[in-house]
Amino acid sequence: MQISKKKLRILDLDIENRPLSYWGENPTSEITAIASCWTDDIGSLEVSLLGRDDPVEMLLAFVRRYVEADVVTAHNIRGHDLPTINGALIEYGLPQLGPKMAVDTYLDMKKRKGIPASQEYLLDLFNLSKKVHMGQDDWRESNRLLGSGLSKTERRCTQDVLDHMRLRPEMVKRGLLNSPKIWHP
Q1: Dist. CA 181–CA 153, nearest whole Å
Q2: What would the mean pLDDT of 27-47 be, rounded to a whole number?
Q3: Which of 35, 81, 143, 169 could form a disulfide with 18 if both were Cys (CB 3.0 to 4.6 A apart)?
Q4: What share of the chain is helix, strand, coil (3-state, %, to 5)?
Q5: E strand or H helix at 124, and its extent?
Q6: What is the three-class DSSP state of 54?
Q7: Higher pLDDT, 2 or 168
Q8: What 3-state DSSP class applies to 23?
Q9: Cα separation, 30 vs 113, whole angstroms
Q10: Cα separation, 138 vs 43, whole angstroms
Q11: All residues at 6 or more sequence positions from 66 whose CB lies less than 8 Å from its CB, including other chains
Q12: CB-neighbour burial class of residue 32 (10 A; exposed 0-12, middle 13-18, buried 19+)
């Protein structure tokens, strides 16, 4: 008897967020963009933008995909993206994300010293892509939700997902990732 292996549904994602207010020395934040794509279907790329899309609908659209996924992946997903999304869900009185297997190409990278672990550096190191750069003026325009700023945010968030979809397999091939971990809210 042959046992068939179920192909895992892997959702690659990225968020952008802006500072909202200050609580002591730590800024609170608001999600300005959520992009996600199934790793086996580049045509499934979706992006939602604050200023264009309703914030609750942005979150609910992401949650639908999150629930369908067996695994989620991003650069610093357990340290930034998922906790920030969960905070927004709490703020809007929506159900929180459940536990999920997460491949974090930042937190799960093998121990190293003397080299950065940023997505930008790793993309350059492996000759995969150049990260979409946004200077301070770009971020100010973006965070004000202005027309051209929205398009910059969309381009940055979308490109981060597409770049990460190249980065993760390259890191796996090179043996640079430790085992994924379950993210618990």
Answers
A1: 29
A2: 96
A3: 143
A4: 40, 25, 35
A5: helix 119-125
A6: coil
A7: 168
A8: strand
A9: 33
A10: 27
A11: 11, 72, 97, 100
A12: buried
Tally of CA atoms within 13 A in the half-sphere of 120 that contains its CB: 5
Looking at residue 53, what is its pLDDT? Answer: 96
Strands, E assignment, 39-166: 46-49, 71-74, 100-104
Strands (E) in the chain, as ranges, are 10-23, 26-38, 46-49, 71-74, 100-104, 181-183
Give the homologous superfamily in CATH for domain 10-183.
Ribonuclease H-like superfamily/Ribonuclease H (3.30.420.10)
Token digits of residue 124: 């350059």
* Closest alpha carbon to 9 in 62, 65, 63, 59: 65
The residue behind tokens 């190249």 is: 166
- Crossing angle for the helix pair 82-91 and 55-68, to the nearest 10 degrees: 130
Amino acid present at 32 = T
Confidence of residue 23 (pLDDT cuts 50, 70, 90): confident
Q: Estimate the crossing angle of helix 136-143 against helix 147-173, to 10 degrees.
A: 120
What lies within 8 Å, CB to CB, of 45 at 6+ separation is: 35, 36, 37, 158, 161, 162
What tens digit of pLDDT does each residue of 123-148 get? 999 999 888 888 899 999 999 998 89
- For 165, residues 6+ apart whose C-beta sits below 8 A from its C-beta are 12, 37, 39, 42
